[in-house]
Structure formats: structure tokens, C-alpha cells
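Weekly structure sync, notes
Attendees: PL (lead), two postdocs, one rotation student
Agenda item 3: pending single-chain targets
PL asked that the sequence for the first pending target be pasted directly into the notes so everyone works from the same version. It is reproduced below exactly as submitted, 624 residues in total.
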Amino acid sequence: MFPQRLDSPQAYDIAKAMMDGFNRHYRLFRSESARAKHRFETADWHGQQRAQRERIEFYDLRVKECVMRLEKEFKAGAQPMNVWHQVKLHYIGLLVNHLQPELAETFFNSVTTKILHRTHFHNNFIFVRPAVSTEYIENDEPAAKPTYRAYYPTRETLLPTIVSIVENFNLQHGFEDLPRDAAYVLEAIGERLAQVKLRANFQIQVLSSLFFRNKGAYVVGKIINGFIELPFALPVLHSPRSGKLLIDAALFGEDDLQALFSFARAYFMVDMDVPSAYVQFLRSLMPRKPRNELYNALGLAKQGKTLFYRDFLFHLRHSTDSFRIAPGIKGMVMLVFDLPSFPYVFKLIKDYYPLQKDTTREQIKGKYLLVKQHDRVGRMADTQEYSEVAFPRARFDDELIAEIEKFAPSQLEISDRDGDGQVEVIIKHLYIERRMIPLNIYLQEAFDAGLDNASARGQVEGAVIEYGNAIKDMVAANIFPGDMLWKNFGVTRQGKVVFYDYDEIEYLSDCNFRRVPTPRNEEEEMSGEVWYPVGPRDVFPETFAPFLLGNDAVREVFMKHHADLLDVAFWQEHKERIQAGHVHDVFPYERERRFSRLYARSTSARDLPVQDLAESHLSRKEPD
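Predicted structure, written out during the meeting:
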């Protein structure tokens, strides 16, 4: 029961100290995000990568600092539960008019769960549900930027409006030819709004901060016309020709935005006063994307983790199916299970590995952390890491329980730990990631349908091409996947191939790519064993083929599009470029979408009158 009166002299001081801890965290988080603009302007790509990596650690450091302060100043762990009830009530009071209340609630939970015993983790002590609304929050200070800006172009001003949208971000680095790029954007808009009458509410809404990631900055917004809303994003890059800025493409629609904000990409750096307002705006662009993934994409992974767990508990309450061993080939290192009705998989590290897997639990956790902190270039699935996760025992198949007891007994507890009469399966440590169709199963489905079927043949061709592209994108990001078997890759609902088995992952620059030595005699040539010395990080690309290309149809497509992956020169060349400091471009959109294909046009956009451009690219005809 909550106290009837707030009579503890220390409760407010503890709540205020926790709020101070959160405010310090968000101030540092936002400051680092804001500096991304300068790093982009100065093309400091290594600094951008380093900042993206280091920012991930900010949250845990601030939680640790706050816990230490509370123990030192207030002996927080020794305070009675009545005081902690009052701490939460005072903290709720401090959230009134706060610009990041949902993040502050999560910070409270993180600190509190470090101090209190697990049996106290319920509504009375932590924020299982949000206590403060995030609706309509806006910073009212005169100097504050609004969440988004609205523009109301006319027929004659649409092109200059596009120019103004970009110029309003005040990038301190000149554009190569902004009117030219704006004309390409206008043409792309016209292709989607041709034959559409522009209504009275025709407008363009644009989020007030740029989205920075790797070597790009993104303008994100939507075009509103009548009842239609068209999401868009404009990637801004440094021109390889002049070093100045250019708009590289125009992305439109939910699918394009979903790819840009994919769970398999690095987090953005965005300077935000009110992150919940950004999430609300982004959800209007991508209504199918869960809020937790949007918070993740904005670099607020702890909030994403909180929302994911709330969604998971809500789903459990409204479903009745059972957890089961995940379909597919079982891993040697990870035990994977899922809930058929829930689009995620749960992975825990086994206690025992085959002899060929020379690794440890801590090394495997280190690999997952590497991927978390690295640029995932749309090819490596993000994971959420949890400890002491409780599931209802009644929802677990006995076969799954037996599997965990056999392979990961140290990670399993079955008990009524909370003393509430509910027996639970408690997993000590696990990872949760988006469920995909394993690539080997995806290919087998096509084989089963028969390759004389055009659709099945196309499925094989598309999957193999995507598989090679996935490896090449990871190579560009200085990642060698290690185990390249089909079963370690998955296919997303957009048809993208994504890697998800990280226990053998390495930095490409740490690998030693070699050719298989020429046998010196007949005995070596006929040997069924490896007769030459092999170091721990030696890689022999020509040996990939027997493991990957046993199917003739797969071999044909692979050799046509990705034969270079079997050549040591391909790997060595990329390694040397990375060691020389080169940062590759990996685009979250197809290269065919880039405006660079249009630069060869003989007539410059700036040579055409603005009205001619508007009339040629955007028709205002009434629909029939």
C-alpha cells in the first residue's frame, strides 16, 4: 500500500538525487548527439564512429554513478520499504513538466533495481507502466527548436521551399549545387504526386534536427496533401568529386523509411529536446514499426528495452501458445527458443560447446557487445540483452525445459521466487532479437517448390545475391562473419539477408587471409586432413565453396555475382584499405536511387526557370 503521508525527510532528497543523475545523463547524451553535426561537417568519420560506440556506454555509467551516490549519501539499500514508496511518489512529482519523463522513469527503474531485491520489482516500487503522459510535450523556451517545422509551398515556390528546408539546418559546409539537387527532389516528388490535385492543407513537415549516422545526414519528414501523408527522407553526403555537400537521393514511403531505421543498422545521433515527440512523429511515418525499435534507432536503447519488455508482458497476457525450441538447425553455442505468436527469438549461451568451438561464455558476450557497438550496416541484427527474466512455467514446452536443462543448466531456475504461488522459469541471461526466416530454410522452401517454377527460381537467385551483398556490406564495415554457413543468416520480411550468429565474428583487419599452399608431394595432395600450418585467425577464402555451393543452382548464381568472395585478393584488398583509414560507404537504399546517375544531364537544373520546373515535375490536374 502507498503511504497516506509523505513524512520521510530523506525520501525527497533520494528522489531529487535520482533525478539529478538522470538529468546529467541526458545532458551528456544530448551533447554528444549534437556534436555529430560538427563531425559531419568536418568529415570526421572515425570520430563519428567512435562517438556512436562510446555513447552506448553512457547510460550504464550514469546509473552506476547514481547508485554509488545514493549508497554513500543516504545508505539507500538500508532504507525501509515505506521510504521507497515515498521516493517514487516524490519522483513522480518531479516528472511534472519534464521534457523526457519516460526516459527518467526508466532511469529510476535501472537505479532502483540495482539497490532493491528482485521481490520488490512491482508497481509499488518501479514504473511497470508509465506514470506520466508523453502527449503534447514541447519545450516552450524562446530559444528552443520546435519538434518539426511546417512549410506551405505554392506551385511557384515548391522548389525554393525544398532549398529552404535544407538551408534551415544551417550546415557549416557548402553544397556542391543545392538548386540542382532540389530540382531532383522535386522531380522525385512529382513522380509520386502526378495527376493528384493539391489540396488546401498541402504542406511539408520536417523534423527540426538532422539524423546523423556514419557518413550521412538525413532530413526526415512527410508531405501532407488532403488525407494522404507521404513519408520521405533526404540523405545528405559529402561529394566524392568536390568534397562539398549534396543530396544523394530521395526516399519515399514507409518501406524506404523502414529500411533506413532498420533494427540491423547503427543508431542515429539526433539532437532532441523531447524524444517522445520525435518517436510520435516517426510512428506517423512508420506505423508498423514498434515504438521500442524507434527509441533504439534514436540511440535510446534502454528505453527501447523497457518498452519491448512491456510489449512482451502485454502479449503474454493476451496469448495462450507455448514457448518452444526454435525451428531450424540447432546451434552449437546458442540455444534458441521462441513463442510462435511473437515475432522475436530468445537466445541463451550454452554451458557446453563442441571441441571445434574454442570459446567461453565471456568471449561470446564480448562478440555480441562488439556488434552492439559497431556499425551494423543493415546486415547484423540488433539484440536486447536481459538478465533474470521470468516466464510462466505453464507456457514452456517440457521438451524446451529438457533442452535447457541439458545444454544450459546454469542459466535455468524453476521456482516460485516471488512467493506469490506462481511457478516461473527464470533465465539468468539471454539475448532477444527479431525473428527471421533462416536462410537455409528459405532456400529449401524454393528447392521443394521446384526450380522449374519461376517464382522459386527467383527466390533462390534473390537470396543468393542478397547473401553475397550482406557479406560484402559487413566487409566494408570491417567485419568478418566467421561462420558463413547459410543457417547463420536470416531473411527479413523485406527480403533482406541479415547475419545473426556472432560467436565467431572478428574484425576483418585482425584476420590473416591466405591461399591454400600448393602441395609439395603426392602424400600432401591426397591427404584428407589439413597438412599445412593454420593460425588462429587464418582464413582461406577458396575453401568456402565446398561448404556453400553444393547445390548447382546456388553455385551458378553465386559464381555469377559473388565469385570474388572465393578470392583471397578481394579480402586482402579491403583489409588494406581499412587499415589505411578508409571508411566505406554503405547505403541504406539501392544505388539505383542515387541522383549521381542524373548528374550527366546536359541541362543544369539552375538553367531552368523555377515555374518551368514546378510545372514539369508536379502536375495539379484533377483526378478523373
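Discussion points:
- The chain has four domains: 11-124, 148-316, 319-435, 461-579.
- Residues 168 and 398 are 60 Å apart (CA to CA).
Action: rotation student to compare against the earlier draft before next sync.
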